[in-house]
Amino acid sequence: MKRVFGAVFLSCALGAAYSKHATHALAAHEQTKRNLTIEDIIATAPVTGRAPRDFRWSPDGRRYVYDVPAPVESAPPDVRVHDVARGTDSAIRAARAGVRGSRSRPIAEIAWSPNSRALAYVDAGTLRVATATGTDRGTFASGADDPQWSPNGRTIAFVKNGNLTLVDTRTKRARRLTHGGSDAVLNGDPDWLYSEELDLQHGYAWSPRGDAIAYLRFDDRPVTAFPIQDYLVRDNTVERQRYPLAGERNPRVSLHVIDVASGADHLLYDAAPRDEYIATFTWQPHADAVVAQILDRPQRHLRLTAFSTDAAAPAHTILRERSAAFVDVAPQPLFLPSGRHFLWLSERAEVQSLYIIDARTGNARRLTSGFPVSDVLGLDAKRATAYVDARYPSEREHALVAISLRPCPVPRAHVQRPDDTTAAYGCGEPRVSVLTPGGGTHAVTLAPRGGGFIDRSSSLGRPPVILRGDVDRRGTATLFVTPSLARFRLGETRLLRVPSPYGPLAATIILPPNFDPHKRYPVVVEAYGGPLPSADAIQSDDVFPGLWPHLLAERGFIAFSVDGPASRFARTRDVQRYTGHLGEIALAGQLAGHDWLVRQPYVDPARIGLWGWSFGGYLTAYTLTHAPQAFTAGIAGAPVTDWLFYDSAYTERYMGLPKTNAAAYRRNSVLPAAGALRAKLLIVQGSADDNVHLENSVQLLNAFILNGKQVDYFLIPGARHGPTAIDARRNLEHKMLDFWRTTLHP
Questions:
Q1: Residue 574, SS3?
Q2: In whole angstroms, what is the distance from residue 505 CA to residue 496 CA?
Q3: Is 323 helix (H, G, I), strand (E, B) or coil?
């Protein structure tokens, strides 16, 4: 079945069936539509609506908490609890994010109690508790972060001033559990590097019995403290961010377990002597053991090791993952209730697949093949079913997929001695079942129990819809639908594939309204091109791209994006092309897209622009200096300009250590090629960027000055790795639109 994208394509395909009268009526209707404005798109009440967000299910799956953005920009969100059976909402006190410099956590950070009857949440650093029906139980602590309930619900742990602290939920009495915490020594609180590059959300975890807490200790004192200056206050305050550059000293990290009653602290593993990463950790059920992923500094060897809380018992390495290129950190293992087996994602078979692993022997059985599994979302042990986020049924879509854990029978001649996994699970059908309705991209939040899920879905030609579903397919409830955009002149959208020396590359294109194939149009190419987790949607996926590219199309530009040869995580060998070639392999995708564009009769080859943010900003600057003949103009947002200026964990994964790979660092730097620039270039960055430091743009500007090149530069006051305030975002997009009008002359 062919999928039809956009009203223009539909009218062309059915043109022969329209009467003359119907054609005139359609033209009259089109004339009543209006163009989008930047103010339509960026507002407290944008034309796409104020969608609910941050859904978190209660442990019993009967309720979920969510928030709705406030109608006033500076106000906290409206936080609500929904009772699924009753269909009712209860409001709880609105929560405001507490700013912790470059390590601030999400607004309305919320943790459900184990019995699903209460919620702990942080409001501007204050720990509060409310019942599930909205009754406020008051303030429990100040200066708190990352609350987590004990398994019996009598205690809440949280982080304060670099230490783990406990508060009794009945008396509200607090006591500090760890000692020695500071701005540079963090107990149970992930530092910048681990939260940003290893995606570590929590630095501590309660034991299943609630008698102990496992935690990571981060000693950032050896790490370079970068100054990030705030120029918007009278006396110019300076934040010192611990940020290890490629090749520099990393944080010293160790894994501990602390007894809740006595405070006795036991070191399980010290990663510092071997300069390793402890990427994830979790408790193994019924084993009094903590299982951790340990990754070497070059990120070529990963081992999953079980550490007993009994100091006399030796550590046990369950499995190892190796690669001559690099090993990506997997989500932490999800144990079956018995603790004898766990679910694990691995790229050992070329495609990231789901495995069931014997925790004693490390024996693995592969459960999926032929499509990448991005994440394990949940497990129903009674049904022997895992629920995963997968790129399925095509690599450009995301779906919630149920995977049977039961092995299918094999011919008797091939049966080996069964382990207890085979004995526990017989064969069941179907092995793979899609649970999210329709195609496109689905981002799912699954209930821990009860089978419910929240599904935010969209496709290239369909704006987001939020539904509540059930794994048993007992019906859906619509929670949010993007308001109709029919009053706007939106362009035609298409999914494409373009040829390249590496095989066909996925691409998308948005054509202007009333597109005339006999005219020649300017093109704005949006690029990212860098490594992304397979769970993330990318620009060429079947996902709604937002209204910015549609606004460009309404202004007479063609909006286009294309994958790089390594952008897709469908095959491990493709992603590993980044090794030593971050810029070079990403550039190949943009050149393939450019070559396809210039062959189209409706594209003006002299008016093709390129832009991107973060890695996309780097790719823009790299492309314009290493393939200067291709693009007429570019906008580089928050660009890395030399990989020596970016952090250790990300950079070294792909580029290795600078002292052993100096030539690769130089080849993939923008700076040595600054003199080759021909295109008009606008560089944009926030003055307080804590991800890509301002040093990158300053070094690039200096390189252009030394080479006699004129470029434009726009600084966003106070912004981090991109503006968030409405005024700043509007100002930036007006600046970008004016730049394209000036340089590409639509």
A1: helix
A2: 8
A3: coil
Greatest CA span in the chain, whole angstroms?
A: 87
Query: What is the rounded CA–CA span in Å between residue 385 and residue 369?
Result: 16
User: Could you say which of 3.40.50.1820, 3.90.25.10, 3.40.30.10, 3.20.20.150 is the CATH number of the domain covering 485-744?
Assistant: 3.40.50.1820
Average pLDDT, the chain: 90
Contact between residue 5 and residue 461 where contact means Cβ atoms under 8 Å apart: yes
- The CA distance from 572 to 349, in Å, is 8
Contact call for residues 605 and 581 (beta carbons, < 8 A): no
- Please classify residue 631 by burial: count the beta carbons closer than 10 Å to its beta carbon, then call 0-12 exposed, 13-18 middle and 19+ buried: buried
Cβ neighbourhood burial of 193 (10 Å; 0-12, 13-18, 19+):
buried
Whether 360 and 340 have beta carbons less than 8 Å apart is answered as yes
Q: What angle do CA 269, 650, 268 make, to 5 degrees?
A: 5
Phi, psi of 129 (to 5 degrees): -130, 140
End-to-end Cα distance, the chain: 36
Helix/strand number for the chain, H first, E second: 13, 43
705, two tokens: 């000055």
d(CA 103, CA 278): 19
What does the domain layout of the chain look like in residue ranges? 485-744
- C-alpha dihedral over 229, 233, 235, 236, to 10 degrees? 10
Segment 164-189 mean pLDDT: 97
Distance CA 626, CA 500 (A): 18
Q: Position 36: which residue type?
A: L
On the question of pLDDT at 606 being above 80, the answer is yes
Q: What is the DSSP letter of 625?
A: H
Gyration radius (Cα) of the chain, Å: 27
What length is written for the chain?
Answer: 746
Q: What is the pLDDT of residues 694-723, one digit of tens each?
A: 999 999 999 999 999 999 999 999 999 999
Quick one: which H or E segment has residue 662?
helix 662-667
Cα 687 to Cα 230, 446, 508, 713, distances in angstroms = 8, 38, 32, 12
Q: Please tell me whether residue 111 adopts helix, strand or coil conformation.
A: strand
Could you give the CA distance from residue 211 to residue 155 in angstroms, rounded to a whole number? 11
Q: Is the pLDDT of residue 186 over 50?
A: yes
Transcribe 678-701 into DSSP letters. Answer: -SEEEEEEETT-SSS-THHHHHHH
| Contact status, residue 357 vs residue 376, Cβ threshold 8 Å | no
- Residue 634 tokens read as 């570019």
Alpha carbons within 13 angstroms on the beta-carbon side of residue 575 total 20
Reported as a single tens digit per residue, the pLDDT across 400-420 is: 999 999 865 544 333 333 233
> What is the pTM assigned to this prediction?
0.92
pLDDT beyond 60 at 370:
yes
Alpha-carbon distances, residue 543 vs 122, 393, 611, 697 (angstroms): 33, 14, 19, 31
Tokens of 29: 């209707």
